[in-house]
Batch of 2 targets.
Target 1
Amino acid sequence: MNGLRTAAAVFLLAGLGACAQTPPIATVTDPYAGSRYTGTLPGGTLPGASAEDFRRIAGDTVWFPENDAALDGRARETLVRQAGWLKQNGSFSTVIEGHADEQGTREYNLALGARRASAVQEYLVSQGVERGRIRTSSYGKERPFEICSDPACQAQNRRTVTVVTPRAGV
């Protein structure tokens, strides 16, 4: 009797094995494919954005006439590019460094550098950059680009330099 049960069990298992099918290959569907994100994200940084990108794309230096803090057309073009880059890269903050040539007293050149940095800051704000992201400082004639006495060379020291850095926690 046990032999008959064993034979029936083997026959039944063999029959079930013959009916077994291989499981279908699972397909994975991307739930986000074809959809559009409609949430809100804070202004961020595009992948690969850096201070070097800012210098290369927007230019970081604006030059000024002698004893003046007025922005000419070339300066405004540079600042429009800077503002565009800063608006696209909301996780960066800036320091605008004002400089002057070596003519004049230390105090006069510090004040002139401050006026130049302030003029750049105001222009960037007028282009839509948040005021809180921009700081200014003045070095006067303390950090010249070139040390020289030639007027054309001294013109290189009448400038502002916009330095960008990633903001902490953004």
Note: The radius of gyration is 33 Å.
Target 2
Amino acid sequence: MEMILQLLLDTLLLAGFYSMLSSGFSLMWGVTGIINLAYGSFVLVGAYLFYWAYQSGVNLPNAFLLVFLSGLLGGVAFQRIFINRLMNYEPFTLLILTFGLDILFTNLLNLIFKADVRSVQIQSLSKSLFIRDFILPYNKLSVFLISSLVILFVEVYLRFSWTGRAIRAVSADRTGAQLCGINPGNVYTISTSLATALAMLSGCFYALLQGFTPFDSESITLKAFFVCVVGGLGTLQGLLLGSLLLSLSEVFSGFYLGEEWKMVVSLFILIVFLLFKPRGFAGVKYA
């Protein structure tokens, strides 16, 4: 019984990180209708930038801020240089574009940093908190708490700020929002900018939790895709439920079946949802 409770604790901590990891992917897909296949590369760019900043002596808060601001600016450039040019073409064109960018980023990261496994080890986060017989590693606990705060802040921003309401309006009905005086082009730029910043910030947490290489992009994008399909787009509840189911499947299949089964079980669940509940728990139609 104690082992089951420990696994459930691990699931909860991992779900907090996965909700952060998938939030940018969900936001961009939900608002612009674009499935960004380069999303994992943006996460890795954030991880490498965070790694470089920390190795250069930048303290943690400033390193987080540097990565987040870089993500905001990078997202604006991504939208204006690449996405805007192809917005009126078939969705397949944008898929090819982001797929090509993913390959480009992977190879650029490999050229700059090589394929060595990197990680950010912080002495104060290397220990664990013990509560009776349960173990809570400080790095996982910290990532869970910070991720929860960021997700809460984004939810409040989307619900109560004028810009957030404009983003939700365009996501729900682009034409109706336009008739109310909202410029969809500006909303797309803000959404992509915020989504990219969230992706790169989650890269910082990825670097704190595990080693990474330039070739992790595909698995990261797949995890974000799983959360969005299973949880559904457009709601915080969907994001959290999708993250919880992904972490539940990974933690328990990894423990009882072996690490090599984690991806197999996750993909099986993803296929089942696509076949029988394609709109996920949230039940919102994809853009």
Note: The mean pLDDT is 90.
